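Thread title: Can someone regenerate the structure for this chain?

I was given the following input by a collaborator and told the matching structure tokens would be attached. They weren't. Posting the sequence so someone can regenerate them.
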Amino acid sequence: MLLQLGQEFKHISGHDPLFTHQYSQAWFDFRHKRDRYADYFMNSVTATQAHQEFCISLHDEVPDYSAHLWGITSSDSASGYQAWGGPPRIGRLDGSIVPCTAGDSLPFLPEDCMEVLRTIRECYPKAWGRYGFVDAFNPLTDWYNPDVLGIDVGITMLMAENARSGFVWDVFMKNGASKAGDGEGGV
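Best answer:
Regenerated them for you:
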């Protein structure tokens, strides 16, 4: 997908990091679910596109941010935990990249997110370890978090499988409580 910088994205979101669009959708299949306010899957696609453009728009300030390297959501940093992201800008952005931002958005923008993950894996080998991607790294300062966080790697794995086959969504949505929440009956 090719984004045009300056494009306006209309979606429902608060002043919060991108993970708020990702975590619920690791389990609940929001594809083709809508109410009078939104199509919630497409809302997250748009939120991810807006985040991607936001990061790319910071290129003058953070030269490493590009169409192939973007992603900021709450994470560790060289100065401790940060609740950062955008748009709009949240926190003091320092050039860090949070790999799970792209990993957790795989169902929303599969090609773009895979490009980011490949770039990180190929160009920043210290961002990949025994258990997967580090929580965050900063190419500008050569800082790499020594931690791999299960909550981030776990959601990335679930979302990767959802993007690949929809398996997690299919299994979860067979549960009676999920069906009840889906408006299709159940418990």
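The beta strands are 128-129, 132-133, 137-138, 143-144.
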